[in-house]
Amino acid sequence: MNYRHAFHAGNHADVLKHIVQLALIDSFKRKDSPFFVLDTHGGRGRYLLASEESRKTLEAEDGVMRLMSQPKLPDVVERYLKAVQADNPVGAMITYPGSPLLTAQALRPQDRMAACELQPDEAAALKKLFAHDTRVGVYEGDGYDKIRALVPPKANGAKIGRGLVLIDPPYEGQDAEYIRILAALKETFERWPQATCAVWFPIKQRRSILHFLRKASALPFKSALTIELLVRPDESPLRLNGSGMLVLNAPYQFDRVVGPALPALKQHLGEAGASTRLDWLKTAE
User: Fold this and answer.
1) Is 168 marked active-site?
2) How many domains does the chain have?
3) For residues 93-125, b (16+ Cβ closer than 10 Å) or e, as one string?
4) Does residue 41 have a known ligand-binding role?
């Protein structure tokens, strides 16, 4: 696998993904009982914005940095920006926190997280990042294969009823990746039916996406919500025109929580022809 997220950290796709991720975690924190987060493709957890990879693409400048310069944004976006800023000195942007670090920042003492990473050097960096956090387990290996061992989750021998499985693969082989995601979702539901699952997907080839969404929404989850941000027209399969999040077993009225973010993201991150979409593919009866 050749993918390295350091080239893309803080771009428009990260912005959408992490806004949704943090909003989901905040929904779990409305109750005192513990929750569990499984991050199947964790990366290294923290990315230097002055690194060679980041400076080569400058994608963060067209993503999170544009939002940081805005005086007022919807609450769900401001919450995300505060989480990013918490990993940086006051008034500066040196690093961008990946999904495992954003989750860990939001965990309470009773909550737990497992983060998986296939690439050895990235996994080593992730293990070092969380070496002193007993709430977090880091596993080197294929995150899809770890689902069987990690769900349903337990803490101190007791099952954890609520939680999130975050699936954010590199999509180096897009159609093949969708097959693996569907298998992972099916296994997650069979082992932990009350889990919320959130899948990030790139928007390049709409036909493949629609096929995947139809298959995923047919799984026996109670609900399926799609949240999409296109920063340019959906017409070139050679560029990342945008991305989306599929949320299965979404919290009640979750569309109302994340919906206000979309017009702001379109306005500040989009080019001519940018668009957003928020659709329930299936709602709880």
Assistant:
1) yes
2) 1
3) bebbbbbbbbbbebbeeebbbbbbbbbeebbeb
4) yes
